[in-house]
Amino acid sequence: MKQTLSLIATGVIVVVLILASIFIVDIETVEGNQLGVKETWSGGVLPDPLQPKTYVLFPGFTQKVFKYDMSSQVFVMNDQSNDTYGAGRRRDSYLVQSSEGQDMRISLNIRWRRDPSFVVELHKTVRENVEEKILRPELMRVVKDQATTRSALDAYSGEGLVSLQSDISAALMAPDAELRKRGVIVENFVIEHIGLDPSYVEQIKARQVAVQSRLRAIEETKAAEAKAEQAKAEAQAAYERAVVDARRDKEVGVLSAQKMAEQQVLDAEAAAKRVELAAEADKNRNVLAAQGEQEAALLRAQAIKALGEAEAEATRLKLSAYSAEGSEAFVRIEVAKSMSDAFKNIDGYLPQDMTVNLLSDSFLRAVKSVVGGEAAAADQVPMRALPNR
């Protein structure tokens, strides 16, 4: 009996300990895409968020951890079914009016996430109601501010739609935007569709067709103008090439003429130089020839002079030899021989008073005068002229 009571007591104790551990110890895991905010009985909301990991809280009943998804989320405002965007919720498309009062039903979606530095503040203010309490009201305000300043035609499609979406994105994603100040970071914004009244859409389409036709006409005109400009440019280019070619040919012709003229001048100068050199050579040859003839004549004159002087000296010496002793008889003999040779050829008559002896005697006295250096004028007998025969 005692053993049974002991086992029962042990079982009760174990159950009490298990129940106590369940109520006293709490285990919380903050996942990788989450941040946690911790509240305690004594300290309230702690200022520092809990990073992703597993936490053991003791005693667990006095502490609580709130976990918030920090990954990107999608909020939509359109007329699609609830499961179109998965985690996103359907909200009716936003109805606004254009600048001319035309209804525009705008379908849009926005991708956003919590700012980690604001997670504790968001926990204190809105907790899980960020989309309804912060995101939706601010999104509607910005879209209304931008859409109502445009006409329905401008905002419906084309560049106007792109401009509207760009302006709304800039207002939502600016560093000083209201959502950013409240701890909501907008990553992307897209306008899915803008719905208009069907009759107005028909007008827009007709107008767009007219605009497209006008634009096509403008483009065709531009294309024609471009072709005309191209043809004009090609003609201008051909003209300029022709002008350049003509100018080049002209310059080449001028240069050729200049070169020919310069070559002719050079040839003429060369010919003149050759003539000048030839004349100079002839002149030098003539001068040299004249100088040669002058020098030859001078040498001949000197030779003749020397010869004459030699002959004169020989004659003088010869004649001087005749003045030597005993030479008189020799001279007379020689003279007699000469006279004999001379007289034997004389054919004619002597003058009346002249005889051969007289002629010989007179000649001998003349020779004696020359040889002896004496002249006896009284002894000289003048010769009378022979009568004409």
From TrEMBL:
<keyword id="KW-0472">Membrane</keyword>
<feature type="coiled-coil region">
    <location>
        <begin position="214"/>
        <end position="241"/>
    </location>
</feature>
<keyword id="KW-0175">Coiled coil</keyword>
<dbReference type="InterPro" id="IPR001107">
    <property type="entry name" value="Band_7"/>
</dbReference>
<keyword id="KW-0812">Transmembrane</keyword>
<dbReference type="InterPro" id="IPR000163">
    <property type="entry name" value="Prohibitin"/>
</dbReference>
<protein>
    <submittedName>
        <fullName>SPFH domain-containing protein</fullName>
    </submittedName>
</protein>
<feature type="transmembrane region" description="Helical">
    <location>
        <begin position="7"/>
        <end position="25"/>
    </location>
</feature>
<dbReference type="Pfam" id="PF01145">
    <property type="entry name" value="Band_7"/>
</dbReference>
<keyword id="KW-1133">Transmembrane helix</keyword>
<feature type="domain" description="Band 7">
    <location>
        <begin position="29"/>
        <end position="233"/>
    </location>
</feature>
